[in-house]
Specification:
The protein is an alpha/beta fold and 299 residues long. The protein contains 13 helices and 9 strands. The chain has a 5-stranded parallel sheet with strand order 7-6-5-8-9. Helix 2 packs across helix 13 and helix 6 crosses helix 7. The longest helix is centred in the C-terminal third of the chain and has 20 residues. The structure holds phosphoric acid mono(formamide)ester and norvaline (NVA). Phosphoric acid mono(formamide)ester binds next to helix 2.
């Protein structure tokens, strides 16, 4: 069986701890790992824009001694039209050892991964962004040694990044306040039920949800490919600003996966302020993904 990295919920706490621990080791001593992916090639397909994921996978793989090939799914006919996706995958496997895909079709990524030909890594879909959240967990662990009792607060949309955060919370059971506009909460009632546990609260008041929080996280109100632009109106009072930061714990960190819409989900004052760890977050993407690459490529 090939190993994939599709969703955090596919892994045990032990496996995730191993990946995070490897990421920490690579960050500490990158030279030791500089030929771990020698003679391996990573293929990358981006069907949506990307700066951080593109750069961190590309540079990260090269630093492990591997090669990277960026492929355009239209150009190579990875759309079940010229030939089947299965046939494309079988040919790809003659040349590359692993594929990272970013698309708007989570089901397609799962289907490709189940074909068991080469490891598939989810580089963001409309449903989840596991590399982001696992990298963010690494950043949180660097900032707070005792992260078990941590209060984390998500303020924003019910989106792909939040879904991966919910997957992670269900495994590690840290305290998580999810602050979402009422209208959007109601719309996601079924999902909320599934994730319910004693450390997880769903609220709609950003100030209430931020009290004593050590980590405030947000993301854009409209994700890539979203059609319902009207929903922005529900986010009145949801901008992460100084008042929200001041309500949280004194040593709170502010996190955002980026790209950010300054003045919408976060003020520039907070994004560029002393509590913000957004650039460390972006950099840590590389270390966590290097660990993921080593994990999926290891026989
Ligand atoms: N955070 C993140 O995934 O950024 P990109 O969309 O630029 O890759
Ligand atoms: N929720 C955002 C994350 C971008 C990294 C999006 O999907 O556009």
């Amino acid at each position: 069986m090939v190993k994939n990295f599709i969703d955090i919920s596919d892994f045990s706490k032990k496996q995730l701890n191993e990946i995070i621990s490897l990421a920490k080791k690579i960050k500490k001593n990158p030279k030791k790992y500089s030929s771990f992916c020698k003679d391996k090639t990573l293929g990358m397909i981006f069907e949506k824009q990307s700066l951080r994921t593109r750069l961190s996978f590309n540079v990260g793989m090269q630093k492990l001694g591997g090669k990277v090939l960026e492929l355009n799914s239209k150009d190579i006919g990875f759309d079940n039209k010229r030939e089947t996706n299965q046939d494309v995958l079988n040919v790809l496997a003659q040349f590359i050892d692993c594929i990272m895909i970013r698309n708007n079709n989570h089901k397609k990524i799962i289907k490709i991964s189940k074909q068991n030909v080469i490891p598939v890594i989810n580089g963001l879909t409309e449903q989840s962004h596991p590399c982001q959240i696992l990298g963010d967990f690494l950043t949180i662990q660097e900032k707070f040694k005792n992260y078990n009792n941590l209060q984390i607060t998500w303020i924003g949309d019910f989106n792909n990044v939040l879904m991966s955060l919910l997957h992670l919370q269900k495994i590690y059971l840290f305290k998580l306040n999810v602050v979402i506009p009422n209208k959007i909460l109601n719309f996601n009632k079924q999902k909320i039920k599934y994730y319910s546990n004693k450390n997880l609260k769903f609220l709609s008041d950003p100030l209430l949800g931020s009290r004593n929080s050590k980590c405030i996280m947000t993301d854009v109100w409209l994700s890539m490919g979203e059609k319902n632009k009207n929903k922005i109106k529900y986010f009145k009072n949801f901008t992460v600003n100084k008042k929200i930061i001041n309500t949280a714990s004194k040593d709170v960190i502010f996190m955002h996966c980026l790209p950010a819409k300054r003045g919408q989900e976060v003020t520039s004052e907070v994004l560029d302020g002393k509590n913000s760890v957004v650039l460390q977050q972006a950099q840590n993407r590389m270390f966590i993904q290097q660990a993921i690459l080593i994990y999926v490529l290891k026989k």
